[in-house]
Amino acid sequence: MSYAIIKTGGKQFVVESGQTLRVPSLKGETNEKVEIETLLADGKAGAGTLGATVLSHGKDDKVIVFKKKRRKQYKRKQGHRQGYTEIKID
């Protein structure tokens, strides 16, 4: 089993060759190749790069942020949609 641990968007993912996954937004057009930093590859430590193909861009479901302090007439409601990029590991 060949795997790698990659780091992108402040998060780490365990990936295998041919796998598709959603990561925080990356720059790059659809069907464009991008390089991603590798922390661990095939059980060997050391930083390197890994190739991936951008499949699509989009936004996740809305997350509602609601703040309230009781008896103080303080309420704040805000929505947020995090962007993502779907990639395929080469």
Q: What does it look like?
A:
The chain has 90 residues and is mostly beta strands. It has one domain. The chain has strands spanning 3-8, 11-16, 20-24, 33-41, 44-59, 63-69, 74-80, 83-89. A six-stranded antiparallel sheet has the order 2-1-4-5-8-3, with no helix packed on it. Strands 6-7 form a two-stranded antiparallel ribbon. Strand 1 (3-8) and strand 2 (11-16) form a beta hairpin. 8% of the residues are buried.
Key features of this structure:
two-stranded antiparallel sheet; elongated; 90 residues; 6-stranded antiparallel sheet
Global mean pLDDT? 91
Secondary structural class: mainly beta
Please trace the helix and strand order, writing H or E for each element: EEEEEEEE
Tally of helical segments: 0
| Main sheet overview | 6 strands, antiparallel
Q: How much is the radius of gyration in Å?
A: 18 Å
Q: Would you count the extended β strands for me?
A: 8
How do you describe this structure in short?
The chain is mainly β. The chain has no helices and 8 strands.
What layout of secondary structure does this protein have?
Elements: E1 3-8, E2 11-16, E3 20-24, E4 33-41, E5 44-59, E6 63-69, E7 74-80, E8 83-89
Antiparallel strand pairs: 1-2, 1-4, 3-8, 4-5, 5-8, 6-7
